[in-house]
């Protein structure tokens, strides 16, 4: 690459990073608002989250287009090419995080008319960790910071523990409140969505760690949690 | 590109397509075997499915490596570049389908010791459709066949209908069998995994349709099902 191409490549990669950061911000908001809609039974807000996912999808499509264009025009070499492929993959992961937030928002209507489901109160803390992991992973990506990436990876277990605790709590709650079984099942699925968001944030953090250090982070148990089986 | 580069590119893209086909075959087997393990309570088989997912992940990593290498060495132009990016994305999607099959297999242990959960019998037909969609989508990809792609897209609704029926059935079953609530919740999650596999196959089929015709398939309702809320 000559100096001109080099500069043009840097501009493209910065534009891509800005698009990822924008997607990340929208996704964090989507998680926040989906949870807010859920806890306040705000169906209108939930619908805005569902509708807003389109913008996240569009940004992902825009990233893909710019990636193809950058590769075609700049013909980046090994490291730059790997970085740009990483951006493409991270865009796809953030898009899926947005889908999980949308899926949470879609479940809000189930709760709007129904009686209080007590264990719902366990979800906001879990959502906060998942959301912070998303922010942490994307901040680490923008700053190419392996230390921040490790901090995200280490929090994944907390989200898994939350998921298992909620699964167990919901099983007991369903036994005691058979009329709330449907709502309770939706809570389980919401917890699962949050667990998946945490897992995806961890994947991003692992990619950041790998691309900035050249090493894989210490093996974590990649097993996604299936929930603990309780015999009661 | 000169003739030599052109031929080399064709060889690379054929190698990539072969890797996708191999991943697809392993994923179909993983779905089959996970369901077989589930219906026969075969924990050993379930563990083999879980262990076997590593190979699917490796193939995805191999595809990514070959994609980067092909782009760097052959500098493919617009259409070829878009095709190779599509291969990268499809590899990522198939890898996730493998994860869903693994997740089903992980739940088998929950059922091994417990009494018969009747609605389990609804799952195999749903799994068969999901598995056929995976095969259909990847066959369409290998043959660049938009007709086969459309056939896959049209079956997505059947999988969604199955999911909703299973969700409703499980809610009723849980009310009548409070001791089976935990196992029943796992069945709901297995149905959800199958629904997601069908959704991912549909995504692949849509990409195949788009790359082979230049047009987007008629809009389907992308809403992933959250399950029907029953008041009983």
Would you mind describing this structure in some detail?
- By secondary structure, chain A is mainly alpha-helical.
- Chain A is built from 7 helices and no strands.
- Chain A has helices at residues 3-40, 43-74, 78-106, 108-112, 123-143, 146-176, 181-213.
- The radius of gyration of chain A is 20 Å and the shape is elongated.
- The termini of chain A are far apart.
- The model of chain A has no long low-confidence stretch (mean pLDDT 90).
- At the A-B interface, helix 2, helix 3, helix 6 and helix 7 of A face helix 2, helix 3, helix 6 and helix 7 of B.
Describe the secondary-structure layout.
The structure is a homodimer of 232-residue chains.
Chain A: H1 3-40, H2 43-74, H3 78-106, H4 108-112, H5 123-143, H6 146-176, H7 181-213
């Amino acid at each position: 690459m000559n100096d001109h191409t080099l500069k043009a490549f840097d501009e493209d990669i910065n534009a891509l990073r800005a698009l990822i950061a924008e997607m990340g911000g929208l996704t964090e908001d989507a998680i926040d608002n989906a949870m807010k809609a859920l806890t306040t039974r705000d169906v209108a807000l939930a619908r805005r989250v569902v509708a807003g996912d389109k913008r996240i999808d569009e940004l992902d499509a825009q990233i893909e287009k710019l990636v193809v264009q950058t590769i075609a025009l700049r013909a980046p070499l090994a490291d730059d090419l790997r970085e740009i492929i990483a951006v493409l993959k991270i865009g796809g992961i953030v898009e899926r995080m947005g889908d999980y937030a949308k899926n949470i928002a879609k479940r809000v209507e189930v709760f709007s008319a129904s009686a209080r489901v007590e264990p719902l109160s366990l979800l906001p803390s879990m959502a906060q960790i998942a959301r912070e992991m998303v922010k942490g992973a994307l901040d680490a990506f923008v700053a190419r910071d392996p230390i921040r990436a490790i901090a995200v990876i280490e929090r994944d277990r907390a989200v898994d523990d939350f998921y298992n605790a909620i699964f167990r709590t919901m099983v007991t709650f369903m036994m005691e409140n058979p009329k709330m079984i449907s709502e309770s099942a939706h809570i389980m699925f919401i917890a699962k969505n949050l667990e998946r968001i945490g897992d995806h944030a961890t994947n991003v953090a692992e990619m950041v760690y790998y691309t900035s250090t050249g090493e894989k982070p210490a093996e974590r148990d990649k097993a996604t949690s299936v929930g603990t089986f309780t015999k009661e």
